[in-house]
Predict the 3D structure of the following.
Amino acid sequence: MRTERLTKLYPDGDVSALSDVSVEIHRGEYVSIMGPSGSGKSTLLNLLGAPTRPPPGEVYFEGQPVSTVRSVDRLRAQKIGFIFQSFLPLAGVDGVGERAGAMFEGSKLSIAARVKRAAELLAS
């Protein structure tokens, strides 16, 4: 995944969260994004998550500009995963159920296959 010249300006308050940001992250790499509060970390991560309305600049996923992807929702469901910093477990649902549910949108796996895969991921 890479970005070219990403810029994000929040009109309310006229805040420039990102200005001309280019970054490249290779498959298998572990990357930390650090900085003080308000420096644009969450904004960058949200833009890497393939927004439906991209800002100026471009995000590339597997070499393809996200702005040209036919179904951004499908891309997110099948290829991109997030663990949110304010993550709260679903009430009454175990870890396997949560992970199997996350595979719902866009998954070609049966329910049984999703549950099996979720259990494998938790075990690993």
